[in-house]
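Task: sequence design from structure.
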């Protein structure tokens, strides 16, 4: 009985721990990511490509977020010009910051934007029908390979056990490649699956968006709490009275 009680307590603790479900990053490596910074008027125009700005931000955030959850990577658009290719680079893996950065640093933006197919692949990798999971899409464009992000969002909402999809749009100074309706479609994908659609036009805004979606504000910004002190002798269970403030022995 004691053993069962202890196992049950551990299972309950795991269930209640925040920000530990497996996550997949869906990373845009389409041709437009080779463009200048955040576009005309940005501080990096003509100096640093958009994908390099994103790489620099990921290098800062990934060591924090991969301490608390397993993270994987799917990329779309790399390598072949004007193709709708989707690639699984890494399934959800513990302490994956270095592996993810190695994959991202090796990308050559060239193809189109099969955003719908990439998110569908990420959901399958997460075994979304029976397990909770998180997908974070980072893209500077909208679907250009014939898929419907909103229709996919509706299907995933119906079939998923507990799937959250966030989309971070790297808006190029408010510009949309294929019209505002495509932005509405991408927003719908997130909203149908308990997610956020956030825009970023600077590296700082991208960092904030990643902390809000992929990170865990409660965990990743704070060091672990030290062990709670034991109550002083004679305190008993009267912890609310300011006597010890910790666990009973």
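Answer:
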């Amino acid at each position: 009985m004691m053993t069962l009680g202890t196992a049950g307590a551990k299972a309950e603790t795991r269930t209640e721990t925040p920000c530990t479900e497996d996550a997949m990053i869906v990373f845009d490596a389409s041709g437009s990511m080779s463009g200048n910074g955040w576009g005309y008027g940005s501080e990096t125009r003509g100096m640093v490509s958009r994908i390099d700005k994103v790489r620099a931000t990921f290098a800062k955030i990934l060591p924090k977020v991969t301490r608390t959850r397993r993270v994987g990577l799917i990329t779309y658009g790399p390598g072949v010009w004007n193709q709708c290719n989707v690639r699984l680079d890494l399934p959800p893996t513990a302490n994956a910051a270095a592996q993810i950065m190695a994959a991202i640093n090796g990308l050559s933006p060239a193809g189109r934007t099969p955003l719908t197919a990439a998110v569908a692949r990420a959901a399958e990798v997460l075994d979304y029908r029976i397990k909770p999971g998180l997908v974070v899409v980072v893209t500077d464009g909208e679907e250009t390979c014939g898929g419907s992000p909103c229709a996919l969002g509706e299907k995933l909402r119906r079939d998923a056990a507990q799937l959250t999809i966030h989309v971070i749009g790297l808006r190029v100074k408010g510009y949309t490649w294929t019209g505002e309706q495509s932005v509405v479609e991408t927003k719908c994908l997130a909203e149908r699956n308990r997610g956020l659609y956030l825009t970023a036009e600077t590296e700082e805004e991208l960092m904030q968006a990643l902390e809000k979606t992929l990170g865990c504000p409660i965990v990743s910004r704070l060091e672990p709490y030290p062990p709670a002190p034991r109550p002083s002798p004679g305190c008993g269970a009267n912890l609310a009275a300011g006597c010890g403030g910790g666990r009973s022995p």
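The first helix runs from residue 2 to 16.
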